[in-house]
Amino acid sequence: MMSYKLRAVLIFVLFTFSIVSCAQEQTRKGVHIVLLAGQSNMVGAGDFDELTTLDKERIEKVSNRVLLSTNGNEAKPLSYFNNKPSEKYNFTKRFGPEIFIGLTLAEANPNQEYLLIKRALGGTSLYGAWNPDWSAEKSNKVEIGDLKKNIKLYNLHLNDIAENVAGLKSKGKSYKFIGLTWMQGEKDTNAEVSAKSYRNNLRKLVNKYRTDLKVRELPFVIGQVNVLPRKYKPGVDLVREAQLKVGNSDLRHAIIETSTDTTWKDFPKYSDNTHYKAEGQKRLGTAFAQTLIHIDKKLNGKPFKSVTQLKPDEVIKFRALGITNATYHVYVPPTFNPKDKLPIIVAFSPNGKGLGILSKLKESANRNNFILVGCDKLKNGMKDLVFEKRMEDEMLDDIFKNIPHDTNRIYLAGFSGGAMRSYQLTTRRKETFAGILAYGGWLGGNDYQNKPYQENMYVAMINGDNDKGANKWEDIDAKNLRGRNCVVKYFSHPGGHKIAPTEVTNEAVSWLFKSK
């Protein structure tokens, strides 16, 4: 029988090991950093004392692993900030969306540390004070008062971030930026020049953060403004629409949509019809955090571990091994059996949205019984060509290694720039490609006519009758490919530059499969 002393020693060792393991796990993950930026509703005017006792206890419970740095101040455990009571806000404990961003993230990831870095100032414009390309001329057009006319909020936020990151490094902590949350735009609705340029300015802003922080995949969540029209009547609709378009333009983006119903039931407001009360801030912060979690799942997927992860008649997202964070979606038809080794079609879109092109071809996968893969993130206009090539290779290596398929029936597909990518991949990849489905795409022009495209492929060129660009190069490209002993067939459909209807895709796929 184990002695009392030996048992005590064993318990102590196990307990110590558990603590060390937990600490090592947190160190391995590093500190997750969330950036918060905007104007008054990002500052926040929630009355902390209106929160329930349960909410306050939840906040207290996670505050030791969620730090908050606001407007250049030292990072402190998550909590309210002091407020000087006024006629408008007659309370002393004030908060913004940061409280429930931190709380929601921390509860979803119990072993993770967070750092929230917030910079916000009420009544400031993206056209002026928040503009990363700040100029006195622009700022003077829209800002009111010397402070707001001269402040450069983007630069200040970058300084805040740099100081906090330096603090983490000095403590030997690693870190990862997991998102930028943006609650701003009310000010820009007031003037024609700022409202009409808001969409372009918002794109510039998020791209500048990504460039300056060197985080090309930084998620971006927009809180949609819902103020009443003021000085410039069309301004609210223009800014709201701009936010919608930017929020829905990229896999890395999302938007928290709001209602303009003046009962403000979605995010409760004060009687000024502008600023969110405690419940509104609670819902806003929760929505920001939940959206960040959703984007993370959407962007990252899970590494492939076993063929059992593939589910018949379901789309499953995977993350390729490597440094580029490449992701792809796999659809297998209802009859899928990994032992059968079905044909596989790997598809690319011009905007890097693999799920979108997959949805266009999914019905054909069922009818023709093939595995379909839609590739994310690879898109037109990628500036870092070395990184782009590495992403292509990490993604395709992962797909062909893990997804069971007939190695003699590997096909590529793409729309527009995705079709061009499919052609170019055959010039350097080691796989033997059986064929290509090229929707509204061409080799790339005169400079791409003499490249070493793979020989003996079957190529279906699928163009709209009114697709001038694709039809211009159709015969030229076909001649080039036939010179490499490829078999080329044209398929047409009514319309312009778009993916063909399912019946045309079925016809093209049937021809490809019968040819091999």
UniProtKB/TrEMBL annotation:
* Name of the protein described by the UniProt record: Sialate O-acetylesterase domain-containing protein
Tell me the PANTHER family matching this sequence: 9-O-ACETYL-N-ACETYLNEURAMINIC ACID DEACETYLASE-RELATED, ESTERASE, PUTATIVE (DUF303)-RELATED
Q: Which residues cross the membrane?
A: none
**Matches recorded under InterPro entries:** AB_hydrolase_fold, Carb_Esterase_6, SASA, SGNH_hydro_sf
Q: Which classification does the entry list for the species?
A: Bacteria, Pseudomonadati, Bacteroidota, Flavobacteriia, Flavobacteriales
Would I find Signal among this entry's keywords?
A: yes
Signal sequence annotation? 1-23
Reply yes or no: does the keyword GTP-binding apply: no
The record places domain Sialate O-acetylesterase at 32-293
Q: What is the scientific name of the source organism?
A: Seonamhaeicola maritimus
Q: Which PROSITE patterns match?
A: PROKAR_LIPOPROTEIN
| Keywords, ordered alphabetically | Hydrolase, Signal
Q: Which GO terms describe its molecular function?
A: hydrolase activity, acting on ester bonds
